[in-house]
Amino acid sequence: MIARLLSTPRRRITVVLTVTAAVVAFGSWVLWPVYGSSCVVYSGAYTPMNAPKDEVDAAVQRGYDKALADGACGPKRARFHTWTR
């Protein structure tokens, strides 16, 4: 079955590119920084329902920065940081 999958150069290239894309996607998902699970931040800012995404993201970031400065939250970390301990 695997020999048939890799029987032509075009198929080999397709398999290599697909596996590479899958590894890169999984690696970026694993390493993407996330908030700690005990940290829920509400921005405290009122934004309209049709506000641009940049404005909403900025309000959330300001709330997170304030919570971080107050000591209520820890810094962002890699998704699976406990695996390295």
Structure write-up:
The protein contains 3 helices and 2 strands, in the order ααβαβ. 53% of the residues lie in helices and 5% in strands. By secondary structure, the protein is mostly helical.
Quick structural summary:
With 85 residues, the protein is mainly α. It has helices at residues 2-5, 9-31, 53-70, and strands at residues 33-34, 77-78. It contains three helices and two strands.
Topology:
Blueprint: H1 2-5, H2 9-31, E1 33-34, H3 53-70, E2 77-78
Antiparallel strand pairs: 1-2
Q: How would the global form be characterised?
A: elongated
Please, how many helices?
A: 3
Mean pLDDT: 78
**Distance between the terminal alpha carbons, to the nearest Å?**
40 Å
Gyration radius over CA: 21 Å
Largest sheet: 2 strands, antiparallel
Give the SSE string.
HHEHE
Helical percentage: 40-55%
The tally of beta strands, per DSSP, is 2
Strand content: under 5%
Please state how the strands of the largest beta sheet are arranged side by side. Answer: 1-2
Q: Helices and strands: which structural class?
A: mainly alpha
**Which regions contain 5 or more consecutive residues with pLDDT less than 50?**
none
